[in-house]
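ARCHIVE CARD
Drawer: 12
Card no.: 0347
Subject: one protein chain, sequence and derived structure
Cross-reference: see card 0346
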Amino acid sequence: MEMFRSVGAPSELREKHNDTWFDWSIVDSLMCLYFFMYLNFSRQGKVRHKEVAMHNIIHVIKTEPIILHRDTAFNLLGYSFLQENQLANAYRCFNLSLKIRPYHNAAKFYLGIIFNRIHATEREH
């Protein structure tokens, strides 16, 4: 998910000692738990459980004041919406993520996927 964080990012924007984490995948643990629940229930075909997991992700983003990596939280939610083919919601999440962290952000990669899907849909019609 966040492995694209440092690809193609200007290195001069990174602080040598404070930004070493940019090369890793980092997510708050509660967000990670709900995201993995979403993925697991999706693969098992447990629609109701999957929806609850997505609701939990949304609830944490809206109510938890201390999410250290809110940009990643929006990316996880955006990815979930992308899997549900809810492109408008996914787009909103990835844009919110980019507003928080305009550089070193996997949201750019996923916005490209959204634009590609929209373009493919328009070609079909």
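Annotation on reverse: The chain has one domain: 26-124. The two ends are 31 Å apart (CA to CA).
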